[in-house]
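Query form — protein Bifunctional NAD(P)H-hydrate repair enzyme

QUESTION: What is the three-dimensional structure of this chain?
INPUT:
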Amino acid sequence: MIPPGAPILTADAMRAAEEAAFARGISQDELMERAGAAVAREAVRFAMGRPVLVLAGPGNNGGDAYVVARHLRQAGLDVLVAASGAPRHGAAERMHARWEGPTTSLYGAPVRSVLIDGLFGTGVTRPLERSIAAVFAELVRGADFTLAIDLPSGMDTDSGAELGAPRGIDATIALGALKPAHVLDDGLSRCGHVLLADIGIPVETGWYSVCRPALEMPGPQSHKYSRGLVAIVEGAMPGAGRLAARAAMAGGAGYVMLVGQTPVGPAPDALVCRAIDDADDLADFLAGDRIDAVVLGPGLGRDRRAESFLRASLAVDKPMVLDGDALSLLGTGAAASLAAREAPVWITPHAGEFDRMFGGAGSKIDRTLEAAAASGATVVHKGGDTVIAGPDGSVRVLTGASPWLSTAGTGDVLAGILGAQVGQGSSGVDAAAAAVWLHGRAAQLAGPAFFADQLVAELPEAIGECL
Ligand SMILES: NC(=O)C1=CN([C@@H]2O[C@H](COP(=O)(O)OP(=O)(O)OC[C@H]3O[C@@H](n4cnc5c(N)ncnc54)[C@H](O)[C@@H]3O)[C@@H](O)[C@H]2O)[C@@H](O)CC1
Ligand SMILES: [K+]
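ANSWER: The C-alpha coordinates for Bifunctional NAD(P)H-hydrate repair enzyme are given below.
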Protein backbone atom coordinates (compact mmCIF):
# COMPACT_ATOMS: atom_id res chain seq x y z
CA MET A 1 0.00 0.00 0.00
CA ILE A 2 1.29 3.46 -0.88
CA PRO A 3 -0.51 6.75 -0.31
CA PRO A 4 -2.46 7.76 -3.44
CA GLY A 5 -1.94 11.11 -5.14
CA ALA A 6 1.34 11.68 -3.28
CA PRO A 7 4.32 13.55 -4.74
CA ILE A 8 7.42 11.49 -5.64
CA LEU A 9 10.86 13.12 -5.41
CA THR A 10 14.34 11.82 -6.17
CA ALA A 11 17.05 12.19 -3.53
CA ASP A 12 18.40 15.29 -5.28
CA ALA A 13 14.96 16.84 -5.67
CA MET A 14 14.24 16.19 -1.98
CA ARG A 15 17.51 17.86 -1.00
CA ALA A 16 16.64 20.83 -3.23
CA ALA A 17 13.19 21.10 -1.60
CA GLU A 18 14.87 20.95 1.80
CA GLU A 19 17.27 23.76 0.79
CA ALA A 20 14.32 25.84 -0.41
CA ALA A 21 12.64 25.30 2.96
CA PHE A 22 15.83 26.48 4.72
CA ALA A 23 15.84 29.57 2.50
CA ARG A 24 12.31 30.32 3.76
CA GLY A 25 13.61 30.35 7.29
CA ILE A 26 12.91 26.81 8.51
CA SER A 27 15.98 25.50 10.34
CA GLN A 28 17.37 22.02 9.83
CA ASP A 29 16.84 21.32 13.52
CA GLU A 30 13.19 22.25 13.13
CA LEU A 31 12.78 19.90 10.14
CA MET A 32 14.45 17.06 11.98
CA GLU A 33 12.27 17.67 15.04
CA ARG A 34 9.18 17.56 12.82
CA ALA A 35 10.35 14.40 11.06
CA GLY A 36 11.15 12.64 14.34
CA ALA A 37 7.88 13.74 15.94
CA ALA A 38 5.88 12.51 12.92
CA VAL A 39 7.53 9.09 13.03
CA ALA A 40 7.16 8.89 16.82
CA ARG A 41 3.41 9.61 16.58
CA GLU A 42 2.95 6.46 14.50
CA ALA A 43 5.54 4.42 16.38
CA VAL A 44 3.93 4.97 19.77
CA ARG A 45 0.63 3.63 18.43
CA PHE A 46 2.22 0.53 16.97
CA ALA A 47 4.48 -0.07 20.00
CA MET A 48 1.57 -0.55 22.42
CA GLY A 49 3.87 -0.33 25.43
CA ARG A 50 6.40 -2.90 24.20
CA PRO A 51 10.19 -2.35 24.46
CA VAL A 52 11.65 -0.45 21.54
CA LEU A 53 15.04 -0.65 19.84
CA VAL A 54 15.92 2.41 17.75
CA LEU A 55 18.74 2.00 15.21
CA ALA A 56 20.58 5.27 14.59
CA GLY A 57 23.06 5.76 11.75
CA PRO A 58 25.70 8.47 11.28
CA GLY A 59 23.72 10.87 9.05
CA ASN A 60 20.46 12.79 9.21
CA ASN A 61 18.39 9.61 9.12
CA GLY A 62 20.17 8.80 12.40
CA GLY A 63 19.40 12.34 13.57
CA ASP A 64 15.71 11.65 13.00
CA ALA A 65 16.12 8.40 14.92
CA TYR A 66 17.41 10.21 18.05
CA VAL A 67 14.35 12.49 17.95
CA VAL A 68 12.05 9.46 17.65
CA ALA A 69 13.82 7.78 20.57
CA ARG A 70 13.43 10.91 22.72
CA HIS A 71 9.69 11.18 22.00
CA LEU A 72 9.06 7.51 22.66
CA ARG A 73 10.95 7.70 25.95
CA GLN A 74 8.95 10.77 26.94
CA ALA A 75 5.83 8.73 26.16
CA GLY A 76 6.96 6.29 28.85
CA LEU A 77 8.30 3.49 26.67
CA ASP A 78 11.43 1.48 27.39
CA VAL A 79 13.73 2.69 24.60
CA LEU A 80 17.25 1.56 23.73
CA VAL A 81 19.26 3.23 20.94
CA ALA A 82 21.73 1.11 18.93
CA ALA A 83 24.14 3.40 17.10
CA SER A 84 26.25 2.44 14.12
CA GLY A 85 28.55 5.39 14.86
CA ALA A 86 27.84 8.73 16.51
CA PRO A 87 26.94 11.65 14.26
CA ARG A 88 29.75 14.18 14.35
CA HIS A 89 28.17 17.40 13.10
CA GLY A 90 25.11 19.40 12.26
CA ALA A 91 21.54 18.81 13.31
CA ALA A 92 22.09 15.06 13.71
CA GLU A 93 24.85 15.67 16.27
CA ARG A 94 22.60 18.12 18.16
CA MET A 95 19.76 15.54 18.27
CA HIS A 96 22.25 12.96 19.47
CA ALA A 97 23.29 15.32 22.27
CA ARG A 98 19.63 15.65 23.35
CA TRP A 99 19.26 11.88 23.79
CA GLU A 100 19.53 11.05 27.48
CA GLY A 101 18.55 7.39 27.39
CA PRO A 102 20.69 4.26 27.08
CA THR A 103 22.77 3.59 23.97
CA THR A 104 24.53 0.45 22.77
CA SER A 105 26.53 -0.43 19.69
CA LEU A 106 24.75 -1.86 16.67
CA TYR A 107 26.63 -5.12 16.91
CA GLY A 108 25.76 -5.61 20.57
CA ALA A 109 22.07 -4.73 20.17
CA PRO A 110 19.50 -7.17 21.57
CA VAL A 111 16.40 -8.16 19.63
CA ARG A 112 13.36 -6.16 20.83
CA SER A 113 9.66 -6.41 19.95
CA VAL A 114 9.54 -3.05 18.26
CA LEU A 115 12.31 -1.91 15.93
CA ILE A 116 12.73 1.59 14.48
CA ASP A 117 15.15 1.74 11.55
CA GLY A 118 17.06 5.01 11.36
CA LEU A 119 20.38 3.70 10.05
CA PHE A 120 20.33 5.24 6.56
CA GLY A 121 17.82 7.06 4.41
CA THR A 122 18.26 8.94 1.17
CA GLY A 123 22.01 9.32 1.72
CA VAL A 124 22.90 5.71 0.88
CA THR A 125 25.53 5.75 -1.83
CA ARG A 126 26.74 2.15 -1.85
CA PRO A 127 25.64 -1.32 -0.70
CA LEU A 128 25.53 -1.82 3.07
CA GLU A 129 28.53 -3.64 4.49
CA ARG A 130 27.68 -7.31 4.86
CA SER A 131 28.12 -7.25 8.62
CA ILE A 132 25.71 -4.30 9.01
CA ALA A 133 23.17 -5.85 6.64
CA ALA A 134 23.35 -9.15 8.54
CA VAL A 135 22.82 -7.59 11.99
CA PHE A 136 20.03 -5.41 10.65
CA ALA A 137 18.27 -8.39 9.03
CA GLU A 138 18.60 -10.37 12.27
CA LEU A 139 17.03 -7.58 14.33
CA VAL A 140 14.18 -7.23 11.82
CA ARG A 141 13.58 -10.99 11.90
CA GLY A 142 13.43 -10.99 15.69
CA ALA A 143 11.10 -7.99 16.02
CA ASP A 144 7.31 -8.20 16.00
CA PHE A 145 7.04 -4.85 14.29
CA THR A 146 9.59 -2.82 12.32
CA LEU A 147 9.10 0.76 11.21
CA ALA A 148 11.60 2.39 8.82
CA ILE A 149 12.31 6.12 8.95
CA ASP A 150 11.98 7.59 5.44
CA LEU A 151 13.33 4.45 3.70
CA PRO A 152 14.38 0.97 4.74
CA SER A 153 18.13 1.29 5.27
CA GLY A 154 19.99 -0.04 2.24
CA MET A 155 17.83 1.10 -0.68
CA ASP A 156 18.86 3.02 -3.74
CA THR A 157 16.54 6.02 -3.36
CA ASP A 158 16.10 6.78 -7.05
CA SER A 159 15.83 3.29 -8.56
CA GLY A 160 14.32 1.14 -5.81
CA ALA A 161 17.17 -1.40 -6.09
CA GLU A 162 17.98 -2.94 -2.73
CA LEU A 163 21.49 -2.29 -1.47
CA GLY A 164 21.22 -4.56 1.56
CA ALA A 165 17.76 -3.71 2.94
CA PRO A 166 16.15 -6.86 4.33
CA ARG A 167 12.64 -8.15 3.79
CA GLY A 168 10.25 -8.07 6.70
CA ILE A 169 9.90 -4.33 7.40
CA ASP A 170 6.24 -3.73 8.24
CA ALA A 171 5.90 -0.03 7.54
CA THR A 172 7.92 2.89 6.23
CA ILE A 173 7.19 6.53 6.92
CA ALA A 174 8.25 8.62 3.92
CA LEU A 175 9.31 12.10 5.00
CA GLY A 176 8.04 15.09 3.02
CA ALA A 177 7.37 13.12 -0.19
CA LEU A 178 7.53 9.61 -1.55
CA LYS A 179 10.82 8.63 -3.16
CA PRO A 180 11.09 6.36 -6.21
CA ALA A 181 12.30 3.55 -3.91
CA HIS A 182 8.86 3.48 -2.25
CA VAL A 183 7.16 2.65 -5.54
CA LEU A 184 9.69 0.86 -7.76
CA ASP A 185 11.42 -2.48 -8.09
CA ASP A 186 12.73 -4.04 -4.83
CA GLY A 187 11.05 -1.26 -2.88
CA LEU A 188 7.77 -3.10 -3.39
CA SER A 189 9.04 -6.02 -1.33
CA ARG A 190 11.08 -4.01 1.19
CA CYS A 191 9.02 -1.04 2.40
CA GLY A 192 5.89 -2.73 3.77
CA HIS A 193 3.01 -0.29 4.14
CA VAL A 194 4.15 3.18 3.18
CA LEU A 195 2.86 6.18 5.08
CA LEU A 196 3.65 9.77 4.19
CA ALA A 197 4.45 12.42 6.80
CA ASP A 198 4.00 16.05 5.80
CA ILE A 199 6.84 17.83 7.58
CA GLY A 200 6.12 21.21 6.06
CA ILE A 201 8.57 21.13 3.15
CA PRO A 202 6.97 22.80 0.10
CA VAL A 203 7.19 20.30 -2.75
CA GLU A 204 6.88 21.02 -6.46
CA THR A 205 6.88 18.12 -8.88
CA GLY A 206 5.06 16.56 -11.81
CA TRP A 207 5.54 13.05 -10.39
CA TYR A 208 2.72 11.50 -8.35
CA SER A 209 1.37 8.15 -7.24
CA VAL A 210 -1.87 7.26 -9.03
CA CYS A 211 -5.06 8.13 -7.18
CA ARG A 212 -8.70 7.24 -7.74
CA PRO A 213 -9.82 9.26 -10.75
CA ALA A 214 -12.78 11.62 -10.63
CA LEU A 215 -15.00 10.51 -13.51
CA GLU A 216 -18.05 12.34 -14.81
CA MET A 217 -21.57 11.06 -15.14
CA PRO A 218 -23.04 11.38 -18.62
CA GLY A 219 -25.04 14.63 -18.77
CA PRO A 220 -28.69 15.06 -19.77
CA GLN A 221 -27.61 16.01 -23.29
CA SER A 222 -25.17 13.09 -23.70
CA HIS A 223 -25.61 10.68 -26.56
CA LYS A 224 -23.61 7.77 -27.87
CA TYR A 225 -21.35 9.91 -30.06
CA SER A 226 -20.70 12.57 -27.44
CA ARG A 227 -19.48 9.86 -25.04
CA GLY A 228 -16.77 8.67 -27.39
CA LEU A 229 -16.73 6.31 -30.35
CA VAL A 230 -13.85 3.87 -29.95
CA ALA A 231 -12.71 1.70 -32.86
CA ILE A 232 -10.92 -1.51 -31.88
CA VAL A 233 -8.95 -3.10 -34.70
CA GLU A 234 -9.19 -6.87 -34.66
CA GLY A 235 -6.50 -9.23 -35.94
CA ALA A 236 -5.21 -12.78 -36.04
CA MET A 237 -6.43 -13.58 -32.50
CA PRO A 238 -9.95 -12.19 -32.56
CA GLY A 239 -10.62 -12.97 -28.89
CA ALA A 240 -8.12 -10.31 -27.84
CA GLY A 241 -9.80 -7.61 -29.91
CA ARG A 242 -13.21 -8.61 -28.57
CA LEU A 243 -11.91 -8.48 -25.01
CA ALA A 244 -10.55 -4.97 -25.58
CA ALA A 245 -13.86 -3.99 -27.18
CA ARG A 246 -15.89 -5.29 -24.25
CA ALA A 247 -13.57 -3.48 -21.84
CA ALA A 248 -14.07 -0.24 -23.77
CA MET A 249 -17.86 -0.74 -23.59
CA ALA A 250 -17.85 -1.50 -19.87
CA GLY A 251 -15.25 1.24 -19.43
CA GLY A 252 -17.77 3.92 -20.29
CA ALA A 253 -17.36 4.54 -24.03
CA GLY A 254 -20.54 5.65 -25.78
CA TYR A 255 -20.07 3.51 -28.86
CA VAL A 256 -17.57 0.75 -29.62
CA MET A 257 -16.87 -0.70 -33.05
CA LEU A 258 -14.84 -3.79 -33.76
CA VAL A 259 -13.08 -3.44 -37.08
CA GLY A 260 -11.40 -6.24 -39.00
CA GLN A 261 -11.40 -8.44 -42.03
CA THR A 262 -13.76 -10.93 -40.47
CA PRO A 263 -15.06 -9.55 -37.19
CA VAL A 264 -17.16 -12.56 -36.23
CA GLY A 265 -17.68 -14.79 -33.24
CA PRO A 266 -19.34 -14.37 -29.86
CA ALA A 267 -19.64 -10.74 -28.93
CA PRO A 268 -22.19 -8.63 -27.06
CA ASP A 269 -25.10 -7.55 -29.26
CA ALA A 270 -24.30 -3.92 -28.49
CA LEU A 271 -20.88 -4.27 -30.12
CA VAL A 272 -20.96 -3.07 -33.70
CA CYS A 273 -18.74 -5.08 -36.05
CA ARG A 274 -17.44 -3.53 -39.24
CA ALA A 275 -15.75 -5.59 -41.96
CA ILE A 276 -12.92 -3.96 -43.90
CA ASP A 277 -11.20 -5.28 -47.02
CA ASP A 278 -7.60 -4.18 -46.63
CA ALA A 279 -5.29 -1.60 -45.06
CA ASP A 280 -6.51 1.24 -47.29
CA ASP A 281 -10.09 0.47 -46.39
CA LEU A 282 -9.09 0.44 -42.71
CA ALA A 283 -7.38 3.83 -42.99
CA ASP A 284 -10.45 5.34 -44.71
CA PHE A 285 -12.72 3.97 -42.05
CA LEU A 286 -10.60 5.13 -39.10
CA ALA A 287 -10.29 8.61 -40.59
CA GLY A 288 -14.10 8.99 -40.42
CA ASP A 289 -15.33 12.04 -38.50
CA ARG A 290 -17.22 10.13 -35.87
CA ILE A 291 -14.29 8.10 -34.57
CA ASP A 292 -12.71 9.55 -31.42
CA ALA A 293 -10.11 6.92 -30.54
CA VAL A 294 -8.48 3.86 -32.07
CA VAL A 295 -7.13 0.82 -30.21
CA LEU A 296 -4.74 -1.33 -32.18
CA GLY A 297 -2.54 -4.25 -31.21
CA PRO A 298 -4.41 -6.76 -29.02
CA GLY A 299 -4.29 -10.01 -31.00
CA LEU A 300 -3.28 -8.12 -34.15
CA GLY A 301 -0.70 -10.70 -35.23
CA ARG A 302 2.73 -9.94 -36.63
CA ASP A 303 2.40 -10.96 -40.27
CA ARG A 304 2.50 -8.68 -43.31
CA ARG A 305 -1.20 -7.96 -43.10
CA ALA A 306 -0.85 -6.89 -39.46
CA GLU A 307 2.10 -4.71 -40.41
CA SER A 308 0.08 -3.06 -43.19
CA PHE A 309 -2.80 -2.43 -40.75
CA LEU A 310 -0.39 -0.81 -38.30
CA ARG A 311 1.22 1.45 -40.91
CA ALA A 312 -2.17 2.47 -42.31
CA SER A 313 -3.52 3.26 -38.84
CA LEU A 314 -0.45 5.25 -37.80
CA ALA A 315 -1.00 7.50 -40.81
CA VAL A 316 -4.52 8.36 -39.53
CA ASP A 317 -4.64 11.54 -37.46
CA LYS A 318 -6.65 10.13 -34.54
CA PRO A 319 -5.84 9.56 -30.86
CA MET A 320 -4.55 6.02 -30.69
CA VAL A 321 -3.77 3.34 -28.09
CA LEU A 322 -1.13 0.83 -29.20
CA ASP A 323 -0.64 -2.43 -27.35
CA GLY A 324 0.62 -5.98 -27.77
CA ASP A 325 1.54 -6.98 -31.31
CA ALA A 326 1.53 -3.35 -32.50
CA LEU A 327 4.40 -2.73 -30.07
CA SER A 328 6.29 -5.80 -31.24
CA LEU A 329 5.89 -4.70 -34.85
CA LEU A 330 7.17 -1.21 -34.03
CA GLY A 331 10.21 -2.75 -32.34
CA THR A 332 13.34 -0.65 -32.22
CA GLY A 333 11.83 1.82 -34.68
CA ALA A 334 9.06 2.73 -32.21
CA ALA A 335 10.36 6.15 -31.17
CA ALA A 336 10.85 7.34 -34.76
CA SER A 337 7.51 5.97 -36.01
CA LEU A 338 5.54 7.46 -33.15
CA ALA A 339 7.35 10.80 -33.10
CA ALA A 340 6.31 11.32 -36.72
CA ARG A 341 2.63 11.42 -35.70
CA GLU A 342 0.66 14.55 -34.83
CA ALA A 343 -2.27 13.01 -32.93
CA PRO A 344 -1.68 11.75 -29.38
CA VAL A 345 -0.56 8.16 -28.82
CA TRP A 346 -0.59 5.95 -25.74
CA ILE A 347 1.54 2.82 -25.68
CA THR A 348 1.16 0.10 -23.05
CA PRO A 349 4.29 -2.10 -23.07
CA HIS A 350 5.19 -4.65 -20.42
CA ALA A 351 8.87 -4.90 -19.48
CA GLY A 352 9.88 -7.18 -22.38
CA GLU A 353 8.14 -5.06 -25.00
CA PHE A 354 9.54 -1.88 -23.49
CA ASP A 355 13.11 -3.20 -23.51
CA ARG A 356 12.83 -4.29 -27.13
CA MET A 357 11.50 -0.88 -28.18
CA PHE A 358 13.56 1.48 -26.07
CA GLY A 359 16.16 -0.29 -23.90
CA GLY A 360 17.76 2.48 -21.88
CA ALA A 361 19.48 2.70 -18.52
CA GLY A 362 18.55 4.09 -15.13
CA SER A 363 15.47 3.72 -12.98
CA LYS A 364 12.15 2.58 -14.43
CA ILE A 365 10.93 6.18 -14.11
CA ASP A 366 13.99 7.52 -15.96
CA ARG A 367 13.68 4.98 -18.76
CA THR A 368 9.96 5.54 -19.17
CA LEU A 369 10.43 9.32 -19.27
CA GLU A 370 13.14 8.95 -21.91
CA ALA A 371 10.87 6.75 -24.03
CA ALA A 372 8.04 9.29 -23.74
CA ALA A 373 10.35 12.16 -24.70
CA ALA A 374 11.80 10.27 -27.68
CA SER A 375 8.45 9.01 -29.03
CA GLY A 376 6.12 11.85 -28.04
CA ALA A 377 3.80 9.12 -26.70
CA THR A 378 2.34 8.69 -23.25
CA VAL A 379 4.05 5.49 -22.12
CA VAL A 380 2.33 3.07 -19.76
CA HIS A 381 5.20 0.84 -18.66
CA LYS A 382 3.34 -2.04 -17.02
CA GLY A 383 4.36 -4.29 -14.15
CA GLY A 384 4.02 -4.66 -10.39
CA ASP A 385 5.16 -1.04 -10.49
CA THR A 386 3.30 0.53 -13.42
CA VAL A 387 5.04 3.74 -14.47
CA ILE A 388 3.20 6.19 -16.71
CA ALA A 389 5.24 8.99 -18.29
CA GLY A 390 4.26 11.76 -20.68
CA PRO A 391 6.46 13.70 -23.09
CA ASP A 392 5.92 16.79 -20.88
CA GLY A 393 7.79 15.06 -18.03
CA SER A 394 4.69 14.10 -16.02
CA VAL A 395 4.87 10.79 -14.17
CA ARG A 396 2.23 8.67 -12.43
CA VAL A 397 3.05 5.40 -10.65
CA LEU A 398 0.65 2.68 -9.53
CA THR A 399 1.73 -0.16 -7.26
CA GLY A 400 -0.11 -2.79 -5.32
CA ALA A 401 -2.12 -4.16 -8.23
CA SER A 402 -3.41 -7.69 -7.79
CA PRO A 403 -0.78 -10.33 -8.69
CA TRP A 404 -3.68 -12.29 -10.22
CA LEU A 405 -3.54 -9.81 -13.09
CA SER A 406 -0.65 -11.84 -14.48
CA THR A 407 -2.92 -13.82 -16.78
CA ALA A 408 -3.66 -13.78 -20.50
CA GLY A 409 -5.99 -11.09 -21.75
CA THR A 410 -5.68 -8.59 -18.90
CA GLY A 411 -3.48 -6.35 -21.08
CA ASP A 412 -6.18 -6.35 -23.78
CA VAL A 413 -8.66 -5.23 -21.13
CA LEU A 414 -6.37 -2.35 -20.10
CA ALA A 415 -6.00 -1.25 -23.73
CA GLY A 416 -9.80 -1.21 -24.06
CA ILE A 417 -10.31 0.77 -20.85
CA LEU A 418 -7.69 3.27 -21.97
CA GLY A 419 -9.39 3.52 -25.37
CA ALA A 420 -12.64 4.41 -23.58
CA GLN A 421 -10.88 7.10 -21.52
CA VAL A 422 -9.25 8.59 -24.60
CA GLY A 423 -12.49 8.39 -26.58
CA GLN A 424 -14.25 10.35 -23.84
CA GLY A 425 -11.70 13.14 -24.18
CA SER A 426 -9.32 12.38 -21.32
CA SER A 427 -5.72 13.22 -22.20
CA GLY A 428 -2.08 12.48 -21.43
CA VAL A 429 -1.01 10.80 -18.21
CA ASP A 430 -4.43 11.46 -16.64
CA ALA A 431 -6.17 9.20 -19.17
CA ALA A 432 -3.61 6.47 -18.55
CA ALA A 433 -3.73 6.88 -14.76
CA ALA A 434 -7.53 6.60 -14.79
CA ALA A 435 -7.30 3.45 -16.92
CA VAL A 436 -4.71 1.71 -14.76
CA TRP A 437 -6.62 2.64 -11.61
CA LEU A 438 -9.89 1.19 -12.99
CA HIS A 439 -8.05 -1.91 -14.21
CA GLY A 440 -6.40 -2.42 -10.82
CA ARG A 441 -9.63 -1.81 -8.92
CA ALA A 442 -11.56 -4.21 -11.15
CA ALA A 443 -8.92 -6.84 -10.34
CA GLN A 444 -9.35 -6.24 -6.61
CA LEU A 445 -13.11 -6.59 -6.97
CA ALA A 446 -12.69 -9.80 -9.00
CA GLY A 447 -10.81 -11.43 -6.12
CA PRO A 448 -8.41 -14.33 -6.68
CA ALA A 449 -7.98 -16.55 -9.74
CA PHE A 450 -10.15 -14.51 -12.10
CA PHE A 451 -9.76 -14.47 -15.86
CA ALA A 452 -9.79 -11.44 -18.09
CA ASP A 453 -13.49 -11.60 -18.99
CA GLN A 454 -14.36 -11.37 -15.29
CA LEU A 455 -12.27 -8.21 -15.03
CA VAL A 456 -14.54 -6.60 -17.61
CA ALA A 457 -17.56 -7.58 -15.52
CA GLU A 458 -16.19 -5.64 -12.52
CA LEU A 459 -15.56 -2.41 -14.43
CA PRO A 460 -18.98 -0.81 -13.88
CA GLU A 461 -18.57 -1.14 -10.12
CA ALA A 462 -15.04 0.30 -10.28
CA ILE A 463 -16.38 3.21 -12.32
CA GLY A 464 -19.18 3.70 -9.82
CA GLU A 465 -16.58 4.36 -7.14
CA CYS A 466 -15.22 7.27 -9.19
CA LEU A 467 -18.45 9.20 -9.82
N1 LIG B 1 15.75 15.85 2.91
C1 LIG B 1 14.85 16.23 3.81
O1 LIG B 1 13.96 16.97 3.49
C2 LIG B 1 14.91 15.73 5.20
C3 LIG B 1 15.75 14.67 5.49
N2 LIG B 1 15.78 14.12 6.69
C4 LIG B 1 16.48 12.86 6.87
O2 LIG B 1 17.74 12.88 6.32
C5 LIG B 1 17.96 11.67 5.61
C6 LIG B 1 19.08 11.86 4.66
O3 LIG B 1 20.20 12.18 5.47
P1 LIG B 1 21.68 12.10 4.95
O4 LIG B 1 21.78 12.79 3.66
O5 LIG B 1 22.51 12.57 6.06
O6 LIG B 1 21.88 10.57 4.63
P2 LIG B 1 21.70 9.25 5.51
O7 LIG B 1 21.37 9.56 6.92
O8 LIG B 1 20.79 8.38 4.74
O9 LIG B 1 23.13 8.57 5.47
C7 LIG B 1 24.23 9.32 5.23
C8 LIG B 1 25.47 8.77 5.90
O10 LIG B 1 25.66 7.42 5.65
C9 LIG B 1 26.88 7.20 4.94
N3 LIG B 1 26.63 6.09 4.04
C10 LIG B 1 26.01 6.10 2.85
N4 LIG B 1 25.90 4.84 2.34
C11 LIG B 1 26.47 4.04 3.28
C12 LIG B 1 26.69 2.63 3.36
N5 LIG B 1 26.28 1.80 2.41
N6 LIG B 1 27.30 2.12 4.45
C13 LIG B 1 27.71 2.94 5.43
N7 LIG B 1 27.57 4.28 5.40
C14 LIG B 1 26.93 4.81 4.35
C15 LIG B 1 27.18 8.52 4.30
O11 LIG B 1 28.54 8.64 4.04
C16 LIG B 1 26.70 9.48 5.35
O12 LIG B 1 27.61 9.61 6.40
C17 LIG B 1 16.61 11.36 5.04
O13 LIG B 1 16.46 10.04 4.62
C18 LIG B 1 15.72 11.72 6.22
O14 LIG B 1 15.63 10.63 7.09
C19 LIG B 1 15.01 14.65 7.82
O15 LIG B 1 15.87 14.85 8.87
C20 LIG B 1 14.30 15.92 7.59
C21 LIG B 1 14.10 16.39 6.23
K1 LIG C 1 15.96 4.12 7.52
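ADDITIONAL NOTE: The two ends are 23 Å apart (CA to CA).
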